[in-house]
Design goal:
Elements: E1 12-14, H1 19-27, E2 32-34, H2 45-55, E3 59-62, H3 65-71, E4 75-77, H4 83-92, E5 113-114, H5 117-122, E6 134-138, E7 143-147, H6 151-158
Helix pairs in contact: 1-4
The protein binds zinc ion (ZN).
């Protein structure tokens, strides 16, 4: 597993239990898809996740020992519930760098673009004072993001209440 041997960044696919880690990785700019995006109840979901990981060259993140074993070098077994420890695990493995890229929507993985004034005005949760902030928009979710804000806001964005 040598993710930094080229220009391409590590991409991930995460199991259903790793929603917070999925959102965190997206905030860090890493292309991360989730098993939650697959239709539920598929008895062969583990095999589908492995197929997707291979086909799209993604690292499989899972809390399932058997699935991690099947994934071999392509999988990372995640056994802690603490998302910060999970992130540190991936840093220690050399898979990601600690950063906040604010380049992807945490809910759907879509690349964000700069928000327009109208879009900022349309979001009731936007900060009242816009100075010092940079605003981004997810076209798919119609959701506003911003950076330059306080840590509290970051936490709100990582764990959105919806
Ligand atoms: Zn989105």
């Amino acid at each position: 597993m040598s993710p930094h041997n080229g220009a391409a960044e590590t991409r991930f696919i995460a199991d259903r239990m790793l929603g917070p880690l999925t959102r965190y990785l997206r905030f860090m700019g890493y292309d991360t898809i989730s098993a939650n995006g697959l239709s539920p109840g598929d008895p062969r979901e583990d095999t589908r996740l492995l197929d997707l990981a291979c086909r799209e060259n993604r690292i499989l993140l899972t809390g399932d020992h058997e699935l991690a074993r099947r994934g071999g070098a392509r999988a990372v077994l995640v056994t802690t519930d603490d998302v910060l420890v999970q992130v540190q695990l991936l840093i220690d493995r050399g898979l990601i760098k600690r950063r906040l890229a604010m380049s992807r929507c945490s809910l759907c993985n879509t690349l964000l673009r700069t928000a327009t004034d109208d879009e900022i005005a349309s979001a009731p949760y936007a900060p009242e004072k816009r100075e010092g902030f940079t605003f981004f928009w997810c076209d798919r979710c119609g959701r506003l993001y911003w950076n330059g804000s306080h840590r509290k806001h970051l936490q709100d964005r990582i764990e959105p209440n919806d």
